[in-house]
Amino acid sequence: MLVCHCNLITEKEVEEAIIDLLEADPWLLIVPAKVYHYLQKRGRCCGCFPNVVETIIRVTEHYHRSSATNEADIVSHLDRVRELRDQYGSRSNERRSAGHRAA
After folding, report:
1. Does residue 21 contact residue 38 with C-beta atoms inside 8 Å?
2. d(CA 57, CA 65)
3. How far is 13 from 64, CA to CA, in rounded Å?
4. How many CA atoms does the CB half-sphere of 15 hold within 13 Å?
5. What does the alpha-carbon distance between residue 102 and residue 99 come to, in Å, rounded to a whole number?
6. Rounded to 5 degrees, what are φ and ψ at 3?
7. Is the pTM of this model over 0.90?
8. What does each C-alpha distance from 21 to 10, 45, 63, 91 come to in angstroms?
9. What mean pLDDT do residues 5-31 have?
């Protein structure tokens, strides 16, 4: 499945990049910019970043569950992200006023 239409990046490419980054450092904090840098791309419209974050969380949790990591050390980041979305809303527009318009 295509994750980023601007750069033509597939979900499989994102997953492989995340796994490679985790192989280098299992407790690395991975963000979309780090994945794009690894893929030698850059975010253009950045509309895909929420989906990339979901993929990062899913793959990282799966990676740690399948490795010899103690279950108590695994934090469910996806639950925390969903909690924050519910608390602050999914589209906060970076707290801009309604009259503010981007270019």
Report:
1. yes
2. 12
3. 19
4. 12
5. 10
6. -95, -45
7. no
8. 17, 24, 11, 29
9. 92
Give the pair of three-digit tokens for residue 7: 């750069």
Centre a 10 Å sphere on the Cβ of residue 60 and count the other Cβ atoms it contains.
23
d(CA 18, CA 76): 17
Query: Does residue 74 contact residue 65 with C-beta atoms inside 8 Å?
Result: yes
Q: What is the pLDDT of residues 53-90, one digit of tens each?
A: 999 989 988 888 887 656 655 566 666 666 766 776 65
- DSSP track, 1-19: -EEETTTTEEHHHHHHHHH
Taking the alpha carbons at both ends of the chain, their separation in whole angstroms is 30
**Coil, helix or strand for 67?**
coil
* Residues constituting the chain: 103
